[in-house]
Design brief:
alpha/beta, Arc Repressor Mutant, subunit A, D-Maltodextrin-Binding Protein, domain 2, six-stranded mixed β-sheet, 11 helices, 13 strands, elongated, disordered N terminus
């Protein structure tokens, strides 16, 4: 049965979709000030605990103070919210309705507060990134896109280089965050290891006798002129893959990045051994990538200098990257 005092005290300016018009708790969000939200939180805590004394302990307040707040809420609404028993309290029909609407209001207020705080903290500045030519740059691109959508005032500087060069730039404060191909020395850095495998391939002209193979072995490549990576830690990994053949390799050129190496390979100067992600949009009519056998792959890390002061923008990006990459792993 509708209580006339209940329905007139809370006069509608708007309603949420799905409200029962015959038994509705009217509310105006413009009038839900901080104090009123606090009282609704008190109410929901009592509902959850089913006992005012326990609820007061959870809320770190005295039982008489909590009882007084609830009585004032009942007076303001003009209804009885609780049936008070000796051990537990139960909700009246009006209390059940308020619980449903209070949960909606508190949830909406919490969400709005989080969004407003994020938007009101107008983040500006420039974040300096360094990365190699890697498959994992695609994942980095999605992080940049998501972060920019939230913080349009932040710009990015992207420097491309080997892990050793990027580490040196981070040590000198020129680069905030680096995307580094492993193996790499990261004792001085905080890092997130990415779940992206960087597959090693042999890059050659499509008319090369090996181009039609599903894969190539160390013995296959040992008889051919090669273009190899310059970075020592990576070259050692490749050398281990070649095994006994490495000492007999015809290495015509060493390179730090793959773009120019692909030009040399296209001209027939040699077969280039690189990670496939370094040449992501290769024209297959000009060059083909043939996987190594047995397969060889590497991983990469997103790293930043441990203990180094970060700008607010860089610190927020690191926090965002941690959260999004964690969600990516759990998906």
């Amino acid at each position: 049965m509708e209580n006339s005092n209940f329905s007139t005290r809370w006069r509608p300016k708007f309603t949420l979709p799905g409200m029962d018009i015959n038994a509705v708790l009217w509310y105006d969000l413009q009038e839900v000030r901080a104090m009123e939200l606090r009282v609704l939180r008190y109410f929901l805590t009592v509902v959850r605990e089913e006992n005012i004394t326990r609820a007061a302990e959870v809320l770190h307040m005295t039982q008489p103070t909590l009882s007084r707040q609830l009585s004032q809420l009942e007076d303001e609404l003009g209804v009885r919210l609780f049936q008070r028993g000796t051990r537990h309290i139960t909700l009246t029909n009006e209390g059940l309705l308020l619980r449903r609407r209070a949960e909606e209001i508190v949830s909406l207020a919490d969400k709005a507060e989080r969004e407003l705080i994020e938007q009101s903290e107008l983040l500006e500045g420039e974040i300096s990134l360094g990365c190699g030519e890697l498959e994992s740059v695609k994942l980095l691109a999605s992080l940049l896109e998501g972060f920019t959508a939230r913080h349009s005032g932040v710009r990015f500087e992207l420097f491309t280089g080997t892990a050793d060069i990027i580490r040196d730039r981070m040590d000198r404060g020129l680069t905030d965050i680096g995307l580094l191909l492993e193996p790499v020395s990261i004792e001085k850095y905080e890092f997130i290891r990415l779940d992206v495998l960087e597959r090693w391939v042999a890059v050659m002209r499509p008319d090369d006798p090996l181009a039609s193979r599903e894969s190539v072995t160390a013995a296959d490549l040992a008889r051919r002129p090669l273009i190899m990576v310059m970075r020592e830690a990576i070259r050692n990994e490749v050398a281990s893959w070649f095994g006994e053949h490495f000492s007999r390799l015809d290495i015509r050129c060493t390179i730090n990045l793959s773009t120019n190496a692909s030009v040399l390979a296209r001209c027939g100067y040699g077969i280039c051994v690189v990670v496939e992600g370094s040449l992501p949009y290769l024209d297959r009519s000009e060059l083909v990538c043939v996987p190594l056998s047995p397969a060889l792959s590497s991983t990469s890390v997103l790293a930043w200098k441990r203990g180094a002061p970060q700008s607010p923008a860089a610190a927020r990006f690191i926090e965002y990257a941690r959260r999004m990459l964690s969600e990516h792993r759990q998906a």
